[in-house]
Amino acid sequence: MRIRRWKTQRSAGRRALPPPCFLVTGNAKLTLQNVTLDGANVAKSSYLVQASRGTTLNIGANAVLENNQSSAVYAYGATVNMTDGTIRNNKVEGDGGGMYLFNSTAVLSGGVIEGNQAVINQQDRGGSGAGVLGYGSTKLTISGTKIQQYRS
User: Fold this and answer.
1) What is the pLDDT of residues 101-152, one digit of tens each?
2) When comparing pLDDT for 53 and 10, which is higher?
3) Which of 3, 99, 124, 145 has the CA that lies 20 to 30 A from 85?
4) Distance between CA 123 and CA 88 in Å, rounded?
5) pLDDT value for 9
6) Among candidates 31, 61, 65, 63, which has minimal Cα distance to 45?
């Protein structure tokens, strides 16, 4: 599936934990280009994109994942490619503010990951991987992606 020229903004609802904006399962491939996924800083949010085992997430030109109160991207056994785009101003209570990668493969070759936070409690004490967290058997290659202005 290829998503282009689209903007969505999460709104506070009755649910305690809203579902991800996109859930990628099976052997699916999701490509984000010219889109904005805005978490609108809704408390107790879920991921903007969750990619499951065997799937591929491509983040490309003018894709913006921002303002979420959880990791922008959560990948479990997935492949994530970032060639362009921006992941910014996401804050997670835990680890992996911009991206949380678990047993995944990620190639970050362009774009910007900035202004993300990982905290472990309400006093904003540091979590791990405010920009990107690779956990388990994750294989992470970074060449050309700027990771800046983060806080853990």
Assistant:
1) 999 999 999 999 999 999 886 665 567 888 999 999 999 999 999 999 877 6
2) 53
3) 124
4) 21
5) 57
6) 65
Q: Tell me how many helices (H) and strands (E) the chain has.
A: 0, 17
> Within 10 A of 29 (CB to CB), how many other CB atoms are there?
15
CB 130 within 8 A of CB 86: no
* C-alpha to C-alpha distance for 25 and 61, rounded to whole angstroms: 23
Helix (H, G, I), strand (E, B) or coil at 16: coil
- The 10 Å Cβ neighbour count of residue 152 is 18
Pick from 69, 66, 74: which is nearest to 38 by CA? 66
How many CB atoms are closer than 10 A to CB 149? 15
Q: Are 126 and 120 in contact (CB under 8 A)?
A: yes
Residue with the bigger pLDDT between 82 and 18: it is 82
Task: Give residue-wise pLDDT tens across range 59-79.
Answer: 999 999 999 999 999 999 999
pLDDT of 15 > 60? The answer is: no
Strand partners, 29: 56
At 148, list the tokens. 């800046």
Residue 61 tokens read as 């030109």
